Amino acid sequence: METIWFMIVAFMLVCYVILDGFDIGAGIIHFFVGRDERERAAVIRSIGPVWDGNEVWLLATGGTLYFAFPQLYAAGFSGFYLPLIMVLWLLILRAAGIELRHQLDNPLWTSFWDFIFSMASILLAIFFGAALGNVIRGVPLDATGYFFEPLFTDWSTTGSTGILDWFTVLSGVVAFVALAVHGANYVALKTENEMNERARRVVSLGWYVLVLVTICSLVAVMYVRPEILDNYYALPIGWLIPLLVAASLGAMKYFSGKGNDKFAFLASSVYLAMMLGGAVYGLYPNVLPAIDPQHSLTIMNSKAGNYGLTVGLIWWPIGIIIALGYFTFLFRTFKGKVAMDDTH
Q: Can you tell me the distance from the alpha carbon of 263 to that of 269, in angstroms, rounded to the nearest whole number?
């Protein structure tokens, strides 16, 4: 039962990363693709109908985590209190940047909110990547199941660790580059002419950086947490995950070069899913590894009661079917290119 809920939480997290990932990516490349106010407005319109719905997946993931693994929820939210508050403010600022820029027809006003939107997106990508890096590296959980980390210490991944060290910063860089390329693929899919060409150029140049940081991150993961490969050796079907990572990178380059923005975007979605899925596969059954392995939170010692999990398993499929139906309708309704002269 707990394994099923582990997979459910992972699935919802992947959905969030893919869907809100292209919103964040669009913000990262906002000033690279949009050269003037009219073009930057088009970038925001490309995500306008969907960004707030995409963000709900983060709330749903947090709610599911609280329901299925309350000990993990309690430990994670208390230990990462400061960065979580910072993420909350960044989400608020990103929303303000999207919603307030068109409230006043003034160049200084729109430029200010464009900057807020872009900077909030950049920092969100880095923070989310650093958060995953902390989970992979492990945190200083004590015997009670709680921990506290300062923002940084000596940048080492051993001993007295901080939220930021060389590994978590590298993880943040990987997330930044990956979401920038993902967002560029989406903007290319939704725009035409010069903006489309600029977005493809971001994909083309960003692809080489993405390959480099992906290789560096995989090597770093094996150095920081070599036991992450244990599940791959125990169940070799897991080696399909890195193969799919490589295949998705190749497909992204090929389809973007051919001008097939739809399949390039799908390839970047597969890349994100496999990178996150690979980490989840390697960490199982741990949900929050500790520096001292005996204090790690696993699916067994952090789960809710079996009765609640069983009842939840009856209702969750109903909710997810409704959600998937809504998002299918939403994306079908707003498919196609954004109009440059649309002021809404």
A: 10
As a whole number, the mean pLDDT across the chain is: 93
One-letter amino acid of 144: T
Instruction: Give bridge partners of residue 286 from the DSSP assignment.
Output: 298
Phi/psi for 288 (5° steps) reads -150, 95
> Counting beta carbons within 10 angstroms of the beta carbon of residue 153, is it exposed (0 to 12), middle (13 to 18) or buried (19 or more)?
middle
User: DSSP code of 307?
Assistant: H
Which residues, in sequence order, are CB contacts of 40 under 8 Å at separation 6+? 30, 31, 34, 110, 114
Write the pLDDT tens digit of every residue in 316-343: 999 999 999 999 999 999 988 987 765 5
Q: What is the DSSP string of 251-286?
A: HHHHHHHTT-HHHHHHHHHHHHHHHHHHHHHHHTTE
Contact at 8 Å (CB) between 171 and 254? no
Partnered with residue 181 across adjacent β-strands are none
DSSP assignment string, 141-190: --TTS-----SBSSS-SSSS--SBSHHHHHHHHHHHHHHHHHHHHHHHHH
pTM (predicted TM-score): 0.95
CA separation for the pair 263, 245 (Å, rounded): 15
Structure tokens at 190: 């939704």
pLDDT of 268 > 90? The answer is yes
Of the candidates 243, 244, 294, 297, the residue with the CA atom closest to the CA atom of residue 267: 244
DSSP element (H, E) containing 288 = strand 286-288
Q: Give the Å distances, CA to CA, from 113 to 106, 229, 240, 339.
A: 11, 44, 43, 21
Which helix (H) or strand (E) segment is 297 a member of?
strand 297-298
Q: What is the DSSP string of 93-124?
A: HHHHHHHHTTSS--HHHHHHHHHHHHHHHHHH
Euclidean distance between CA atoms 204 and 158, whole angstroms: 37
Overall size of the chain counted in residues? 344
Among residues 196, 34, 184, 176, the alpha carbon closest in space to that of 111 is found at 34
Phi/psi for 250 (5° steps) reads -65, -40
